């Protein structure tokens, strides 16, 4: 039997078996769950190479499942993050109700994401897309109070995206008579001009919803922060990348052949830029870590959309690299929040402080995640940002550079808030009992954080699959070494490493650390955070001195004009308008026979009056 | 042998930066005193202060992050210095400046403040956290015109490396502050915030915030911060001289140019009261931003 | 104003028979001497019915010779513009007063201070024991029979050499042959 | 820190010279004397030329300047601040009130003799001492530091129990925080 179909069967069977076993006591369901995630992933890595395919016919449609190099890259994200999140979930989700449903949806969403990447025909693409939407919707409403509102928002936007996509698919089918993605891309150049505009726009609406592009992003903060953190790491890290995957295909496969594609690219890139700035500013204002990270995800996806929108080879390289990095560090950070929430019961900065000595490993993981997020060398976030800047300057998008730079500088603010709010500050008595998270939760975090470090030092590891994917998209102009496009790699010669910087940093750092420690190691001792200079006053145990309320108030005051209107406001206004329209319609259709008769008479009179003008009768 | 020379060069550069930065600090104190009609401390006062701080005991710490904060700051300063060409044409040790790239430099420059902020955070002193938030907000303020100036220059001269800018100036024979004046103005206005002299010194306001982020650091911690500040000052000034004022062919010219440039924030600060944070941020998003935009337009047109 | 005052006296006396009024004809001020049990009720009455909504001050006088403290509650009506002084006396030994901080919250501060400085107990006063003095061990320091110098000598160290620092004024007069001015005489030891 | 006369003579000399010329004063105004500090620091008398400078927190400071009378309440805070300062550290008693109580000799809530509670290196007398006197006090402190005699902190460390006992006489119920050098 073909490995590809076997993988999907195991996923499906595993999901159902886990769901059935969820009421059995003991570790059976956990074992089943892990097995049904890990076994297919192992099979995927051992048995499937880029280019493997599987074809079959069903219900009159030809189905073609094939893993392309680009799909393989995204599959790396999905499977890697999926396994880590699964291991994390087993420990994190202990003692929750309806565990079977969680495991079922978890497996299904991994399966559907892989399915999307495998599909080379639009029917299975759409089916898997819908499975993904449904399983993630069930995750969003899985726990907590007040989730219905969030869930309905997510669902409405997903439905809008799906309908847009369905419409595009139908149009493509009517134009080409085939459901194959390759066929669609090949024949795109021959479409009529209006179809050339409408089809990509409809597709981009569908993908833009999933990747939280600016006007379509309003579901994201709520949905990311309300689903269980074990799933959110996957949700933000991998699931949103499906939107990026679709966008890459549309931008590289269709817009490249579109005569006026230049404007299209600029619009998409600027939408990405606005997304980045808006997400960052709103993230700064949040007091809840989940919301903060959710808005930060929106912002980070904005960078990626900018890269995809610009669409030069280097920008595409940067965007795909950042997509991988985002999966790594956002996975880490959401997992860290989940660990903190599990240990303390809250994820609000204003409540939890001073966990650094209680949860050192979580702190280490979050620190690395944050450094990668902020794009500070030597961790991986910097490589992506550098390439993005270079590509923007190289393709003459100067104002966009400023926008992106503003967003990424302002990101330091919420990065610091995240670390300070949870780990630094006063160590309160209330949280004295807090322990480090369970091993199974810490290990995935550390592995993912280590991944950011590894890719920052040896970006070549992931640039090879990316360049393979780019070649598939038709960027084959510069054969071989894609990293030569970037200054970054040029300057350090052929090896794709940042070794010199790394060595320098480590050497200097070690030197001064040693200087500070050895010199007074023996007679330096730890004092508690209550022992601070407060004009001689000794703070009492119960006095909370941590400064976290209105943390960035001066800055927010300075950017107030930018943040006055939320997009939600306009959507709500739109919703109200629709409601009023329906209300008005209902008033016309009163249900009264006489009124209808009156309408008919009025219509006839108007018709008679205007018939010569209108119809020339 | 080459490695040995490289290490020696790096150490020599750091020592040079330390000495120059510290002396500048002392001279600034002297000038401040003269402006205020005082006699003022001797120019070498900062060295005495540094040595005294170094010789003080440091008996306590608030945890690992607190200890590592100053080290982070030092790493940032030293690495920045390593990437800035001190003299033209290899007149001084070329540490890593042949690889110097502005975008990399921009990020490594903020690395230190983030590390320092983490160190300040772990002390648990609320004043430190307040100072850090103010510092970071202000940083977002001045980075925008600064980056605009740099982008304008990158557009105009089609290079992102510092050595590239020096070469451009040597070939054309004019300083970039004359050939792209708006970028220079925006960058100098941003520099006011970068050096944190008054009116942008609310980050470490001594009586209001008890010196802000450094309030729990004494002795060797403070010594490390002080020396890293001096090194960083020298590195930033040299960067500006390299970018806008044609670099320098020997040390004397470098000293004259950096000192002249350094007087801009110092003298401006002496006659200015203090801005609140949001005022500072708005200040940077006013005229400096305008000049930055002008610089980009100028660069695109010419 | 006299009319207002007369009206006020009538009102108060109708409710509180033993309240003794004292008028200051040319001032906007009126005194009532009352029993200490009446204090909460008369103040509530004045506040709720008569419009004396503002508690300006609570003063205390230590009548050491008579063995009593006198507490003066000064309240003010913004409409009638008359200050009403409600005076009461309480014995110095084990002084106990009714608490009025449910009428005016700011009375709480005064009462805490009296408790600490004069040792007056207020019934049902809910506040931490310490107010201004921390770790106070001696008798209430604002009572007139509290000898602050003796207390200081007992509690604190003193540097030797101060004992002979007598009154230098005699010596000054002797040297300069000048008279002590009258106002300075009463400060003489 | 070593105050040993026999060893490290040159090293000590350099160290003391640096300490002498860099005196960071903790701005902790306790009494009316705090008003004399601004004229001392600003252009008329300019203490900065001697290396005297303000420091914001006890962690950074060298000298604790007790400017005037100390109430028993403030004493606790001053002790706390002193103990938070890092070695080497010095105390200057400022004004008559710190010497013998001054005009508050019979007050029930101010201490009279500062050196029973904290080790005082230099007293400046006067009520208030003028800035000239303050500068003279700093000069005296510099001289003591140069000679290695300004070892109040050493004294405090060695006689900690005696000082603690005196401090506890004033505030018996105060839970003294741990001492940190």
Q: Spell out the helices and strands of chain C N to C.
A: HEEHEEEEHEHHH
End-to-end separation of chain A: 71 Å
Helical proportion of chain A, percent range: over 70%
Question: Which architecture of the domain at 2-132 in chain C would the CATH scheme give at its second level?
Answer: 2-Layer Sandwich
- Sequence of secondary-structure elements of chain A: HHEEHHHHHHHHHHHHHHHHHHEHHHH
Number of strands of chain A: 3
What is the count of distinct domains of chain A?
3
Q: What's the arrangement of strands in the largest beta sheet of chain C?
A: 1-2-5-4-3
CATH class descriptor name of the domain at 2-132 in chain C = Alpha Beta
How would you characterize the overall build of this protein?
The complex is a heterotetramer of chains A (617), B (302), C (189) and D (181). In chain A, 71% of the residues lie in helices and 2% in strands. Chain A has 617 residues and is an all-alpha fold. Chain A has three domains: 1-259, no CATH class; 260-522, no CATH class; 567-615. In chain A, strands 1-2 form a two-stranded antiparallel sheet. Chain A is globular, with a radius of gyration of 27 Å. Chain B is mainly α and 302 residues long. Chain B contains 13 helices and one strand, in the order ααβααααααααααα. The model of chain D has no long low-confidence stretch (mean pLDDT 84). By secondary structure, chain D is an alpha/beta fold. Chain D has a single domain, classed as Rossmann fold (3-Layer(aba) Sandwich). Chains in contact: A-B, A-D, B-D, C-D. At the A-B interface, α14, α15, α16, α19 and α20 of A face β1, α3, α4, α5 and α10 of B. β3 (525-526) of chain A pairs parallel with β1 of chain B, so a sheet runs across the interface.
């Amino acid at each position: 039997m073909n490995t590809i179909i076997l993988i999907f069967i195991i996923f499906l069977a595993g999901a159902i078996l886990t769901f059935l076993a969820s009421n059995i006591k003991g570790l059976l369901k956990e074992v089943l769950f892990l097995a049904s995630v890990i076994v297919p992933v192992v099979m995927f890595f051992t048995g499937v190479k880029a280019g493997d395919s599987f074809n079959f016919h069903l219900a009159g449609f030809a189905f073609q499942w094939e893993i392309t190099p680009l799909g393989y890259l995204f599959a790396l994200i999905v499977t890697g993050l999926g396994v880590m999140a699964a291991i994390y979930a087993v420990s994190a989700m202990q003692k929750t109700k309806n565990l079977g449903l969680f495991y079922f949806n978890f497996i299904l969403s991994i399966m559907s994401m892989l399915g999307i990447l495998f599909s080379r025909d639009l029917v299975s693409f759409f089916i898997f897309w819908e499975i993904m939407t449904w399983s993630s919707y069930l995750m969003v409403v899985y726990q907590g109070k007040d989730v219905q509102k969030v869930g309905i928002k997510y669902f409405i936007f997903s439905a809008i995206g799906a309908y847009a996509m369905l419409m595009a698919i139908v149009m493509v089918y009517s134009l080409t008579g085939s459901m194959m993605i390759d066929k669609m891309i090949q024949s795109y150049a021959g479409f009529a001009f209006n179809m050339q505009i409408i089809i990509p726009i409809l597709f981009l609406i569908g993908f833009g919803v999933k990747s939280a592009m600016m006007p379509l992003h309003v579901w994201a903060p709520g949905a990311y922060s309300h689903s269980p953190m074990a799933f959110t790491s996957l949700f933000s890290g991998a699931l949103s990348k499906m939107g990026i995957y679709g966008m890459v295909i549309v931008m590289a496969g269709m817009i490249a052949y579109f005569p006026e594609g230049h404007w299209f690219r600029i619009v998409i890139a600027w939408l990405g830029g606005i997304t980045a700035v808006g997400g960052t500013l709103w993230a700064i204002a949040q007091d809840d870590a989940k919301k903060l990270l959710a808005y930060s995800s929106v912002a980070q996806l904005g960078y990626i959309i900018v890269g995809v929108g610009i669409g030069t080879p280097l920008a595409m390289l940067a965007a795909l690299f950042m997509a991988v990095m985002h999966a790594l560090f956002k996975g880490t950070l959401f997992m860290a929040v989940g660990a903190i929430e599990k240990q303390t019961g809250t994820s609000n900065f204003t409540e939890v402080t001073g966990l650094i000595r209680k949860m050192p490993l979580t702190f280490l993981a979050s620190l690395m995640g944050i450094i990668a997020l902020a794009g500070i060398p030597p961790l991986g976030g910097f490589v992506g940002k550098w390439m993005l800047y270079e590509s923007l300057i190289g393709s003459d998008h100067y104002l966009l550079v400023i926008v992106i730079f503003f967003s990424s500088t302002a990101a330091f603010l919420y990065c610091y808030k995240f670390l300070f709010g949870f780990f630094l500050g006063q160590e309160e008595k209330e949280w004295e009992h807090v322990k480090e998270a369970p091993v199974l939760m810490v290990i995935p975090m550390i592995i993912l954080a280590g991944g950011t470090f590894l890719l920052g030092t040896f970006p070549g590891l992931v640039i090879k699959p990316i360049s393979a994917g780019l070649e598939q998209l038709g960027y084959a102009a510069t054969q071989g070494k894609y990293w030569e496009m970037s200054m970054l790699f040029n300057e350090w010669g052929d090896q794709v490493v940042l070794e010199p910087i790394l060595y320098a940093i480590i050497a200097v750092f070690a030197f001064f650390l040693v200087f500070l420690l050895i010199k007074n190691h023996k007679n330096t001792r730890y004092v508690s955070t209550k022992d601070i200079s407060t004009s001689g006053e000794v703070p009492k145990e119960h006095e909370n001195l941590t400064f976290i309320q209105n943390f960035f108030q001066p800055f927010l005051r300075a950017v107030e004009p930018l943040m006055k209107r939320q997009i939600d406001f306009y959507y709500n206004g739109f919703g109200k308008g629709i409601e009023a329209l329906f209300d008005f319609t209902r008033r016309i259709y009163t249900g009264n026979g006489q009124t209808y008769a009156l309408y008919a008479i009025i219509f006839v009179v108007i018709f008679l009056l205007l018939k010569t003008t209108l119809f020339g009768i | 042998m080459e490695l040995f020379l490289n290490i020696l060069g790096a150490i020599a550069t750091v020592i040079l930066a330390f000495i120059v930065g510290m002396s500048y600090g002392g001279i600034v104190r002297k000038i401040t005193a003269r402006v205020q009609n005082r006699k003022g401390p001797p120019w070498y006062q900062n060295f005495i202060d540094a040595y005294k701080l170094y010789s003080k005991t440091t008996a306590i710490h608030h945890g690992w992050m607190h200890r590592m904060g100053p080290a982070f700051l030092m790493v940032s300063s030293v690495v920045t210095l390593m990437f800035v060409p001190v003299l033209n044409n290899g007149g001084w040790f070329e540490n890593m400046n042949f690889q110097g790239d502005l975008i990399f430099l921009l990020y490594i420059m903020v690395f230190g403040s983030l590390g320092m902020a983490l160190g300040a955070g772990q002390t648990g002193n609320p004043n430190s956290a307040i100072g850090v938030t103010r510092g970071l907000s202000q940083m977002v303020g001045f980075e925008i015109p600064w980056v605009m100036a740099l982008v304008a220059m990158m557009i105009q001269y089609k290079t992102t490396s510092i050595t590239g800018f020096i070469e451009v100036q040597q070939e054309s024979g004019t300083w970039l502050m004359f050939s792209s004046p708006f970028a220079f103005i925006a960058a100098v206005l941003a520099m006011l915030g970068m050096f944190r002299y008054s009116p942008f010194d609310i980050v470490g306001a001594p009586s209001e915030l008890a010196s802000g982020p450094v309030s729990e650091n004494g002795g060797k911690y403070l010594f490390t911060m002080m020396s890293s500040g001096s090194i960083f000052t020298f590195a930033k000034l040299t960067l500006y001289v390299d970018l806008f004022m044609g670099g320098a062919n020997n040390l004397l010219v470098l000293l004259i140019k950096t000192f002249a440039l350094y007087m801009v924030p110092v003298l401006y600060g002496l006659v200015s009261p203090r801005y609140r944070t949001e005022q500072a941020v708005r200040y940077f998003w006013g005229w400096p931003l305008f000049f930055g935009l002008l610089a980009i337009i100028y660069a695109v047109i010419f | 104003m006299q009319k207002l005052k007369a009206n006020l006296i009538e009102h108060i006396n109708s409710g509180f028979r033993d309240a003794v009024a004292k008028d200051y004809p040319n001032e906007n001020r009126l005194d009532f001497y009352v029993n200490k049990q009446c204090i909460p009720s008369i103040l509530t009455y004045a506040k709720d019915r008569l419009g004396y909504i503002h508690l300006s001050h609570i003063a205390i006088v230590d009548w050491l010779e008579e063995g009593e403290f006198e507490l003066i509650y000064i309240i003010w009506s913004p409409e009638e513009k008359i200050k009403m002084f409600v005076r009461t006396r309480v014995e110095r030994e084990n002084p106990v007063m009714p608490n009025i901080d449910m009428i005016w919250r700011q009375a709480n501060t005064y009462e805490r201070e009296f408790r600490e400085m004069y040792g007056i107990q207020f019934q049902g006063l809910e506040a931490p024991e310490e107010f201004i003095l921390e770790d106070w061990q001696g008798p209430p320091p604002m009572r007139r029979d509290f000898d602050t110098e003796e207390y200081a000598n007992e509690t604190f160290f003193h540097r030797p050499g101060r004992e002979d620092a007598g009154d230098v004024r005699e010596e000054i007069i002797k040297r300069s042959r000048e008279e002590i001015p009258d106002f300075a005489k009463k400060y003489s030891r | 820190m070593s105050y040993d006369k026999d060893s490290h003579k040159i090293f000590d000399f350099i160290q003391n010279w640096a300490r002498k010329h860099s005196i960071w004063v903790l701005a902790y105004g306790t009494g009316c004397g705090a008003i004399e500090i601004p004229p001392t620091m600003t252009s008329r008398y300019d203490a900065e030329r001697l290396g005297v400078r303000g420091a914001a927190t006890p962690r950074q400071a060298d000298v604790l300047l007790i400017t005037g009378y100390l109430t028993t309440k403030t004493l606790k805070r001053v002790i706390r601040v002193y103990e938070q300062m890092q070695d080497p550290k010095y105390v200057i008693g400022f004004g008559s009130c710190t010497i013998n109580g001054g005009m508050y000799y019979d007050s029930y809530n101010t201490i009279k003799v500062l050196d029973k509670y904290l080790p005082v290196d230099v007293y400046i007398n006067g009520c208030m001492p003028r800035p000239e006197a303050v500068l003279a006090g700093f000069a005296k402190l510099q001289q003591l530091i140069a000679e290695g005699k300004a070892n109040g902190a050493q004294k405090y460390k060695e006689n900690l129990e005696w000082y603690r006992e005196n401090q506890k006489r004033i505030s018996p119920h105060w839970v003294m925080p741990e001492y940190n050098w």
